[in-house]
């Protein structure tokens, strides 16, 4: 898991560091953000000390009304050893007691010029992306008509060749061989290539080719949401392959399930066309048109009427 | 050539799953295998063909097998149908 610190937040959102620079490398471990309103009233029982704290106009104006010794006591409690940082929004003035407390505990105190709500949503998005769980999958990621298709299968089954054929048909390559996947917002899988091999395809017999210089900028994408998996495997005579497409198989990545289609490979099968049609059919299903289901329903009607015909 | 008549006992008739099972079994033999219902005859190795017959529960079908392994093929198909097609 990547580590985020106040240092990155300062660079990313051009925050102003007011005090507590000793702690700018403290790790931020969670994307949740706390607005310590209740804490300012003195209730610290469930104080989420490991979260980033954001003070807005409400909290700061409330603080102003407190007596100095109460203020000092509560602000000291706010700045714990585990607190990764405190951010003041709207370019508001930091109370001197807060500057002292944060300097003393080494909690970075920062200031932003945007409003509290906007600040929270920007930082949450940033932290979720940075702290997202990640994994790497052996496969090829291609954007086909806007559908992110992860092609998997054993080495040498023809994943890269299929990708090359798809690129030639006007689709876009995201990553070949190794796809870095991060899970964002609970059920969104984002796939991207490792930096070193982006835009590259390895084709047996040709070696490494650069898809971007060969086919142009339209042939590549830096990242893409993954919504379905096509698994290629050598044709197994013993195995019964899905003939109708009514049942849906699943592939599980991190904690997200995506539909999985197993395509048997045999010489003479044009895989690129099959994968392309799989993507189109998936789109159609999401729009509510499921050919296999409609056929099955129609067949059911015929079968139920079977006896009646005979009479 | 071998010929035999069966009654389909599966609740869903020759719907997707029973049809798939039958076709899968038939495909394991090299003989020409046909299934006939209500005067329509189709290749038993073709799933779309078998389903297009729309055979319901209690329907009668006639299976014809012709080829080198017709003996074994008929035996296998007989037991598949008699086992109730996975119902």
UniProtKB/TrEMBL annotation, chain A:
Cofactor: Mg(2+)
Entry's EC annotation: 2.7.11.-, 2.7.4.-
Annotated function: Catalyzes the ATP- as well as the pyrophosphate-dependent phosphorylation of a specific serine residue in HPr, a phosphocarrier protein of the phosphoenolpyruvate-dependent sugar phosphotransferase system (PTS). HprK/P also catalyzes the pyrophosphate-producing, inorganic phosphate-dependent dephosphorylation (phosphorolysis) of seryl-phosphorylated HPr (P-Ser-HPr).
Source organism (scientific name): Geomicrobium halophilum
Residue span(s) of domain HPr kinase/phosphorylase C-terminal: 130-298
SUPFAM superfamilies for the chain: HprK N-terminal domain-like, PEP carboxykinase-like
Family statement drawn from the similarity comment of this UniProt entry: Belongs to the HPrK/P family.
Record remark: domains: The Walker A ATP-binding motif also binds Pi and PPi.
Note: Both phosphorylation and phosphorolysis are carried out by the same active site and suggest a common mechanism for both reactions.
Chain positions recorded as ATP binding sites: 153-160
UniProt-listed Pfam families: Hpr_kinase_C, Hpr_kinase_N
UniProt enzyme class: transferase
Gene Ontology MF terms in the entry: ATP binding; magnesium ion binding; phosphorelay sensor kinase activity; protein serine/threonine kinase activity; protein serine/threonine/tyrosine kinase activity
Gene encoding the protein: hprK
Name of this chain's protein: HPr kinase/phosphorylase
Organism taxonomic ancestry: Bacteria, Bacillati, Bacillota, Bacilli, Bacillales
Annotated residues for binding of Mg(2+): 160, 202
One GO BP annotation of this record: regulation of carbohydrate metabolic process
Domain HPr(Ser) kinase/phosphorylase N-terminal, residue spans: 4-127
Important for the catalytic mechanism of both phosphorylation and dephosphorylation: annotated span: 201-210
PANTHER family listed in its UniProt record: HPR KINASE_PHOSPHORYLASE, PROTEIN YJDM-RELATED
UniProtKB/TrEMBL annotation, chain B:
Cellular location(s): Cytoplasm
InterPro entries given in the database record: HPr (IPR050399), HPr-like (IPR000032), HPr-like_sf (IPR035895), PTS_HPr_His_P_site (IPR001020), PTS_HPr_Ser_P_site (IPR002114)
GO biological process, one term: phosphoenolpyruvate-dependent sugar phosphotransferase system
Pfam families: PTS-HPr
Chief localisation class: cytoplasm
GO CC list: cytoplasm
PROSITE patterns per UniProt: PTS_HPR_DOM, PTS_HPR_HIS, PTS_HPR_SER
Domain HPr: start-end pairs: 1-87
Keywords: Cytoplasm, Phosphotransferase system, Sugar transport, Transport
Function recorded in the entry: General (non sugar-specific) component of the phosphoenolpyruvate-dependent sugar phosphotransferase system (sugar PTS). This major carbohydrate active-transport system catalyzes the phosphorylation of incoming sugar substrates concomitantly with their translocation across the cell membrane. The phosphoryl group from phosphoenolpyruvate (PEP) is transferred to the phosphoryl carrier protein HPr by enzyme I. Phospho-HPr then transfers it to the PTS EIIA domain.
Name used for this protein in its record: Phosphocarrier protein HPr
Organism phylogeny: Bacteria, Bacillati, Bacillota, Bacilli, Bacillales
């Amino acid at each position: 898991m990547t580590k985020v610190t106040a240092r990155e937040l300062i660079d990313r959102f051009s925050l102003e560091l007011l005090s507590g620079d000793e702690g700018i490398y403290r790790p931020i471990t969670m994307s949740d953000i706390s607005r310590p309103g209740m804490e300012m009233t003195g209730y610290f029982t469930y104080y989420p000390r490991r979260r980033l704290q954001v003070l807005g106009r409400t909290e700061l104006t409330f603080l102003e009304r407190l007596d100095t010794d109460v203020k000092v006591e509560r602000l000291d409690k706010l700045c714990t050893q585990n607190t990764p940082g405190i951010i003041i929004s709207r370019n508001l003035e930091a109370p001197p007691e807060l500057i002292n407390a944060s300097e003393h505990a080494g909690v970075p105190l920062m200031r932003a010029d945007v409003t509290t709500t906007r600040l929270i949503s920007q930082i949450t998005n940033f932290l979720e992306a940075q702290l997202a769980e990640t994994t790497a999958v052996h496969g090829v990621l291609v954007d086909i008509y806007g559908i992110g298709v992860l092609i998997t299968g054993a080495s040498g089954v023809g994943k890269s060749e299929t990708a090359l054929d798809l690129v030639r048909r006007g689709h876009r390559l995201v990553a070949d061989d190794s796809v870095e996947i991060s899970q964002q917002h609970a059920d969104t899988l984002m796939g991207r290539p490792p930096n070193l091999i982006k835009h590259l395809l390895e084709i047996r017999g040709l070696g490494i080719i650069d898809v971007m210089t060969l086919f142009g900028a339209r042939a590549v994408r830096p990242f893409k949401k993954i919504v379905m998996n096509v698994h290629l495997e050598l044709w197994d005579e013993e195995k019964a392959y899905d003939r109708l497409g009514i049942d849906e198989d699943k592939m599980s990545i991190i904690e997200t399930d995506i539909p999985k289609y197993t395509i048997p490979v045999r010489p003479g099968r044009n895989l690129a066309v099959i994968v392309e049609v799989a993507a189109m059919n998936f789109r159609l299903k999401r729009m509510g048109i499921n050919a296999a289901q409609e056929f099955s329903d129609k067949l059911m009607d015929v079968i139920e009427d079977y006896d009646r015909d005979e009479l | 050539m071998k010929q035999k008549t069966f009654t389909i006992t599966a609740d869903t008739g020759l719907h997707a799953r029973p049809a798939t099972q039958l076709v899968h079994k038939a495909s394991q033999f090299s003989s020409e295998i046909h299934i006939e219902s209500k005067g329509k005859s189709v290749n038993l190795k073709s799933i779309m063909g078998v389903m297009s017959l729309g055979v319901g529960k209690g329907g009668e079908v006639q299976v014809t097998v012709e080829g080198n392994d017709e003996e074994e093929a008929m035996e296998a198909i007989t037991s598949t149908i008699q086992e109730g097609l996975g119902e």
